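[agent] plan:
  1. take the single chain provided in the ticket
  2. run structure prediction with default settings
  3. attach structure tokens to the ticket
  4. add a short note for the reviewer (M.T.)
[agent] executing step 1
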Amino acid sequence: MTDIAVECTSAGDGWTCTVRVDDPGRSGTSHDLRVTAADLERFAPGADDPAELVRRSFVFLLAREPKESILRSFDLPVIGRYFPEYEREIRTGSTPP
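[agent] step 2 finished; step 3 output follows
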């Protein structure tokens, strides 16, 4: 089972989140994700911490591509450029926990 560890720190008008994706017995990857306060309100209305949104976003991504294909550094809305269904699925919670 893939382990997704998320650590977010405040940065300007939002957060910088470091995401570590590990598969037991295999290599891991590390990613830096930027989330603005506006992104958090758009994708997870009412949330005050982006960690769960970021974790769910990585579950979404890993269902579509290997961890090695995920960008190493990006802004959260970039996911929707590659996967148009992202916003709908994240907002409705149809991405598995």
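[agent] step 4 note for reviewer: The two ends are 13 Å apart (CA to CA).
[agent] ticket updated
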